[in-house]
Design a protein that fits this description.
alpha/beta; D-Maltodextrin-Binding Protein, domain 2; 3 domains; 5-stranded mixed beta sheet; elongated; binds 3-phenylpyruvic acid; aromatic amino acid biosynthesis; phenylalanine biosynthesis; Preph_deHydtase; EC 4.2.1.51; prephenate dehydratase activity
């Protein structure tokens, strides 16, 4: 049996479309599961080699279920990311007119991307209910549970539906980011256009606390591309921070920043270093003066010589 990747299903999700862009899926069995936690549990339980799940969208920010699952429980690591342009279609059973629509459904992350369109085009009292995924919403329309679903146009045929309206997106260029997650192992070698994800916990609430943590990146010239606070669940005001930084853990400036955080945070969870989707190596900004690998190595060599009295 080939190794399997579990993904947020059922068949026909944006997640599946994004997953199929990864060349290695040609040799994997792709298994749709009902939720993000189910996909990650399949990895934790050893039933799947990896899970593929949405993690961030350009309109609303983080997909909190995914972040919360990665923050807690048995550690997992991100190995790949995929960016997908998202535009919705309004899927209905054949014969449904727009004026017949009393109930609609989709994944909660779809709502902010279709809210204005709904206001302008559907009845004022239309009822929205969340589905486990956009394709699951389509399946529920097929079953007659709702009148319409926002989903990818490609999902229509699978569920015997028709796209009544296509190209629905309140924000131009809306994208969703998906990640391939597995059990911890050595990250792939740097490609030159990489990203490192970590979750950090603050020691205790104090003035400038977050700034002190961010400083570990800033002084080493490491650029951040995501900062998301999540409640730890231990009390009001207790937060951890999910951070994506440019660079790879094999880069000295990133490694030194992580060591700096490890010294001052009660917990640092390394979530992986992996190639950055949509960024070519030639587009990566060169390290700020004084933060290249060569400069870090030269500085530690110099220190060793001082400690030896060999200068
Ligand atoms: O993959 C899907 O279809 C999902 O349900 C997750 C999702 C939700 C909103 C935008 C992109 C992906």
């Amino acid at each position: 049996m080939p190794a399997s990747y579990a993904y947020l299903g059922p068949e026909g999700t944006f997640t599946e479309v994004a997953l199929r862009t990864l060349p290695e899926t040609a040799t994997r069995e792709l298994v749709p599961v009902v939720s993000v936690p189910a996909a990650l549990d399949a990895v934790r339980g050893g039933e799947a080699e990896a899970a593929f799940v949405p993690i961030e969208n350009s309109v609303e920010g983080g997909i909190t279920t995914t972040l919360d699952e990665l923050v807690a429980g048995e550690p997992l690591m991100i190995y790949r990311e995929v960016l997908l342009d998202i535009t919705f279609a309004l899927l209905v059973r054949p014969g449904t007119a727009i004026s017949d629509i009393k109930t609609v459904t989709a994944h909660p992350a779809a709502q902010p991307q279709v809210r204005n369109w709904m206001k302008d085009n559907l009845a004022e009292d239309v009822i929205w209910e969340s589905a486990a995924s956009n394709a699951d919403g389509a399946r529920l329309v097929q079953e007659g549970r709702y009148d319409a679903a926002f989903a990818g146009e490609f999902a229509a045929e699978k569920y015997g539906l028709v796209p009544l309206v296509t190209e629905i997106h309140d924000a131009e260029n809306a994208q969703t980011r998906f990640v391939l997650v597995g059990k911890p192992a050595r990250p792939a070698a740097p490609t030159g256009a990489d990203k490192t994800s970590v979750v950090i916990w603050q020691r205790e609430d104090h003035p400038g606390g977050l700034m002190e943590l961010l400083q570990e990146f800033a002084i080493r010239g490491v650029n951040l591309v995501l900062l998301q606070s999540r409640p730890t669940g231990t009390g009001i005001g207790d937060y951890c921070f999910a951070i994506d930084a440019e660079g790879h853990i094999a880069d000295r400036r990133v490694a030194e920043a992580l060591m700096g955080l490890k010294r001052v945070c009660p917990e640092v969870r390394f979530l992986g270093s992996y190639p950055r989707a949509g960024v070519a190596v030639e587009d990566v900004r060169p390290p700020r003066s004084g933060t290249s690998d060569g400069e870090f190595v030269a500085a530690s060599d110099w220190l060793a010589r001082c400690q030896d009295g060999r200068f």
